[in-house]
Amino acid sequence: MRLDIVSIFPEYFAPLDVSLIGKARDRGTLDVRVHQLRDWAHDVHKTVDDTPYGGGPGMVMKPEVWGEAVDAILASGASDGSEPGARPRMIVPTPSGRPFTQELAQELSAEPWLLFACGRYEGIDSRVMAHYGERMRVDEVSIGDYVLAGGEVAVLVMVEAIGRLLPGVLGNAHSVVDDSFAPGAMQNLVEGPVYTKPPVWRDLEVPSVLLSGHHGKVARWRRDEALRRTVRNRPELAAAIDPATLDKHDRKLLDELSFRVGPEDMAN
Ligand code: ADE
């Protein structure tokens, strides 16, 4: 997968040299290219922003600089051996974008080429997204309901979530299947607690069922704990559990927690 990242702070992306993503780059699974947006600004001050039309606080990133940067990256696709006319999918991090979810990470991990356009200040002139939206897929994406100083950290989050899904990036192929939010059996449940050796630490014991070697009981216990944690930490996810996926034991546990799932008339 090829990833192009455009930012006025390329230094932000140093973490992409380490750990799983760093190794994936060394192996060639990931081809990450970080670009300095100011390289496409032509005045002496390398200006990338200007005051907003209509007034208001802050500055808006200028369309001409972004246009030159993105055009240059698109043109480089023609010389990197990719299919003729290949276009990246463009991702613009912004708190007003669609939510970044595990499902979107999965979808993006299947793309051969992504281009991340990091805005600062009040954002990028909207005509940039309108223009490229007619030429390729453009998504404005938010990593959560809070406001960062710019898109750089959001891009680090997205690249890590997407990168670890690429074949061969994680050592243990099973670990992405069991992830919280992964599509499949435990959908709508977050993962429960985990333990390792020693069996007793500071008077705290590992739950004995995990030492029992009884796979059925371990699986049941893990599901109970996932349900408990989902009810406690993510009640909105728990409320969206499809009642048809709950067995008698699940329903009893949810009852004990005084938690109702699904429409009122379907509970229990
Ligand atoms: N830029 C600033 N805040 C952001 C957020 N929450 N998600 C994505 N990009 C952002």
Write up this protein.
- This protein is α/β, with parallel strands linked by helices.
- The chain has eight helices and nine strands.
- It has a five-stranded parallel β-sheet. Strands 3-4 form a two-stranded antiparallel sheet.
- Helix 3 (102-109) crosses helix 5.
- The model has no long low-confidence stretch (mean pLDDT 94).
- The structure holds adenine.
- Residues 93-95, 142-144, 146-148, 151, 154 line the site of adenine.
- The site of adenine has 11 residues, from strand 5.
Query: Which ligands accompany this protein?
Result: adenine
Which sequence of SSEs, written as H and E, runs from N to C? EHEEEHEHEHEHEEHHH
Low-confidence stretches: none
Distance between the termini: 47 Å
Q: Describe the global form.
A: elongated
User: Quick one: biggest sheet?
Assistant: 5 strands, parallel
Strand content: 15-25%
- Strand tally is 9
Q: Summarize the amount of helix as a percent range.
A: 25-40%
Structural Rg: 23 Å
Structural class: alpha/beta
Q: Quote the average pLDDT.
A: 94
Number of H- or I-type helical stretches: 8
